[in-house]
């Protein structure tokens, strides 16, 4: 038999179980046994979703790590391909050589 005040486990009209109600433990006065049951239910729910959450966290971490390594690698690749300063240095040498020729020719 159900505990007093627990209500009928099945809805007499439709024959369905009632839906769970959200309870705010700070507003409603709950017995220590009810609080303990809530903690146990929360722990069971947390443990049930732990493997899925762990897998999702690992995939997210590996994705972020791969993105960081890709950006880092691309940066090194693009800097090693950069010949802009070398071309400027060659033009500067040629300009100095022309200036030296003009100065010696005068």
Quick structural gist:
The protein has helices at residues 32-81, 84-105. The protein has 106 residues and is mainly α.
What does this structure look like?
This protein has 106 residues and is an all-alpha fold. It has 2 helices and no strands. 0% of the residues are buried. Component of 250-400 kDa complexes called cytochrome oxidase assembly intermediates or COA complexes. The chain crosses the membrane at residues 58-77.
Task: Describe the secondary structure blueprint for this structure.
Blueprint: H1 32-81, H2 84-105
Organism: Pipistrellus nathusii (Nathusius' pipistrelle)
Domain Cytochrome c oxidase assembly factor 3 mitochondrial coiled-coil: 45-91
Protein name: Cytochrome c oxidase assembly factor 3
Uncertain stretches of 5 or more adjacent residues: 1-5
Overall, the morphology is rod-shaped
Main sheet specs: none
Contiguous helical run count: 2
Strands, count? 0
Q: Helicity level, as a percent range?
A: 55-70%
Query: Mean pLDDT score, rounded?
Result: 82
Q: What's the N-to-C terminus distance? A: 119 Å
Radius of gyration: 37 Å
Query: Helix- and strand-based class?
Result: mainly alpha
Q: What string gives the helices and strands in order? A: HH
Percent range for β-strand residues: under 5%
């Amino acid at each position: 038999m159900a505990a007093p005040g627990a209500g009928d486990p099945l809805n007499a009209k439709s024959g369905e179980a009632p839906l769970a109600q959200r309870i705010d433990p700070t507003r409603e006065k709950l017995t220590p046994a009810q609080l303990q049951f809530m903690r146990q239910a929360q722990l069971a729910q947390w443990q049930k979703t732990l493997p899925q959450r762990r897998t999702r966290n690992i995939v997210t971490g590996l994705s972020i790590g791969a993105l960081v390594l890709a950006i880092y690698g691309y940066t090194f690749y693009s800097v090693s391909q950069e010949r802009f300063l070398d071309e400027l240095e060659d033009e500067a040498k040629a300009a100095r050589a022309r200036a030296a020729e003009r100065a010696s020719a005068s």
